[in-house]
Amino acid sequence: MSTTDQIAEKLADHQTQLKYALVNFNDTHLRRGLFNFFGGGVRTPQLKIELNEILGALIPGFQNLESHTMSEINKIIEDQKREIEAKLALITGNNLSALMTERKAYEAKLSEIDAKIQHICGELGLDVGLESAAKQERRSRMSGEEIDTKILEALKNAPQGLSQIAMSEATGVSYGSVVNWLIENASKVRTEGERKGKRVFLVEC
Predict the structure, then answer these.
(1) Domain with CATH 1.10.10 in the chain
(2) Mind giving me the DSSP string for 31-61?
(3) What is the per-residue pLDDT for 72?
(4) Cα–Cα dist 69/74, whole Å
(5) Would you identify the CATH topology of the domain 144-202?
(6) pLDDT per residue as tens digits for the range 135-192
(7) What's the pLDDT score for residue 95?
(8) Burial class (CB in 10 A: 0-12, 13-18, 19+), 33
(9) Lowest CB count within 10 Å: 5, 98, 147, 179, which one?
């Protein structure tokens, strides 16, 4: 069972991804690219590929830009933005925070009870497998060295580059931790592309 802190970390990661998607939907680079594609600009193959990659990463089930009109794309984007805003409001605008605080308090009380039971059973020579929530979390949380090893290995095995979300999925490292690692290890990687189309590559030593 996940601890309250682990749940909070997952919620924070999800909130970060939602905010990132919202920023990308409002990005001038995407808007300019769509205007050029549908508004009579030069439809280069590279522009089509880039727009499909960006929209495919932002919109579930999106496949081909050319099967839509500009007005359809605008409607899809606005619908997605409203859905994201509703999810963000769900995270911040209800009693979720109070519930998490309440759960944390029960968790602390349960940990105290488990410690007493474990102590008595230990004197009897029995291991009943009770651990405090804090110990469970410390055991499951990755160290900085583990995160570094997993991300570097994933990038080594992906010469085509990885998006930040793909890095998280490939390593099991939380999205927020991936972002922090990239900031702290900027000299080890290079990036190509814009926003959701951005890919991360390992710098060859």
Answers:
(1) 144-202
(2) HHHHHHHHTTS---HHHHHHHHHHHHHHSTT
(3) 94
(4) 9
(5) Arc Repressor Mutant, subunit A (1.10.10)
(6) 555 445 678 888 999 999 999 999 889 988 888 888 888 777 888 898 888 889 988 8
(7) 82
(8) buried
(9) 98
- 69 Cβ contact list (under 8 Å, min separation 6): 38
**Report field, pTM of the whole predicted structure over 0.70:** no
The per-residue pLDDT for 153 is: 93
* Exposure b/e, 55-67, CB count within 10 A at least 16 = b: bbbbbeebeebee
pLDDT in tens, 115-126: 788 778 777 777
Q: How far apart are CA 82 and CA 123, in angstroms?
A: 58
Query: In angstroms, rounded to a whole number, what is the distance separating the alpha carbons of residues 114 and 129?
Result: 10
The enclosing H or E element of 8 equals helix 4-25
CA 4, distance to chain mean position in Å, is 18
**pLDDT over threshold 50, residue 203:** yes
Q: Quick one: the chain helix, strand, coil %, rounded to 5?
A: 70, 5, 25
